[in-house]
Amino acid sequence: MQIEAIPSTPVYFPVQIAAAATAQQHLLIVERAEWLKPEQLNPLSDAASSLFVYLLGNTILRSSTQAQYECRSFNDGQSLWAMVDAFLSQARMGLRLYVIGSEPFLWQASAIATRYGMTTDAMQLELAGKPSRNVYCIHCRHTIRDAGTNLVTCPSCGKTLAVRAHFSRRLGAYIGVQADAEEPGVLPPVEELCR
Amino acid sequence: MSRNIDRIELRVEATRDLSPSLKHLRLVPAHGQGQLLAPASAGSHIVLTLRDASRTFRNAYSLTSKPGARDAYEIIVRRVQQSRGGSDFIHREIVPGTLLEATPPANLFAPVRTARRHLLIAAGVGITPFLSYLPELDALGQPFELHYCARDDEQTCFASWFGERPNARIYRDIEGHRLDVLALLRAQPVGTQLYVCGPDTLMDHVLASARDLGWPASTLHAERFGGSRGGAAFVVSLARSGFDVHVPGDVSLLDALEAAGVHADSQCRGGACGVCRTTVLDGCPEHRDYFLSAAERSEGRHIMPCVSRAAGKRLVLDL
Questions:
Q1: What is the spatial distance between Cα A126 and Cα B133, in angstroms, rounded to a whole number?
Q2: Are residues A88 and B115, on separate chains, in Cβ contact within 8 Å?
């Protein structure tokens, strides 16, 4: 099911590191190593800048690139985000952030960067993997992770929620509203979400 | 009686010479005791209409009063030798009791309230918008640094506004006392927003340095009240009004239009806000604004009459 886009629906573009070659530092965070295309690691034209690559999962990047970068991999999200946090706490202005991953992953990174005062024009988010959304239940404020269909049941309050196109950047989630509020028991057909 | 919400009347309640070239004005509502002014946010300015015997000046001045104050607007005016005349007029003619026409406050230079840190760089009388930042940022509890390049008299005047603050530094135009812009910008932690106000040369240097270091565009904020530099005289033909206006070399296009009684929207009068954008039907503009994109400039279909002029002898405008 294609949820009709509205202005708050995020739009994603492929990460292009070379486009921001005037920056002093580049931090690239990747959820799964195979989602990073080797050509995305083109050598940076600015020799003074430096690239750091943080990978989730114990993988090593194929070394088919001449790019100079420092790569670290992390076993789990918790240690990854702790390291991102530590990196940002030391970072100076002139940092560019690039994130490749599922939607919840992208917005987790965005939330941490925003907490450090990074602006959206310093970040690039590239969506990868199968469609999956975080849904925020407006009735009980519970966030349902990785929903894959247009209707989800809130595990906290039990309501059946329709996933709306409205996206909260602060929460990193789509807004979920009780689907049968007007006619109890009458629900639209369940469909898989697509991009 | 008709009321124009784009115009307010103010009375000069008090003037104070801070130095031979710096004058402080306290402006209150012109009519009626107990009237309140609209509250202004930090970084706001008003545009004063100054009527000399021979011509009318409209100059923008930052409010130095505390944000939210409703009893009075305060401004500080530096007498500029090469000015279009507005600041000189204020120093010569304005006395307590003078009535002035002004615009309500507008803000093109508000601090980003969601920011993590603020870096303020000022030079000369460009310190004025930041005088309202100080109480605002204090109230928000957000960390900031103020770096001020001052002349002798400015240092004497303004040091007392922030003398005791550990986060304010004053620089002098003396070897060993100058501001090292690059070193300062390099040292800024991620999450810093940059604000600069002062002479064009300083602002251009600071902004270009920040861009070279990779500061994103949304973190760069500049307040320009440079006014127009003047140039060659030219004639502007107004297609809709059906007459021509002569623009002398020392008068801006906007001032000339207003003097001719042509209504043209305007706000900052410094080429920054974009409110006065006007369609060019014929002729080639000489762009001096900071609003139009490079593509729009080369296209030459629009002009900012507050600062820009004609590249040739004649312009035709859709006015």
A1: 38
A2: no
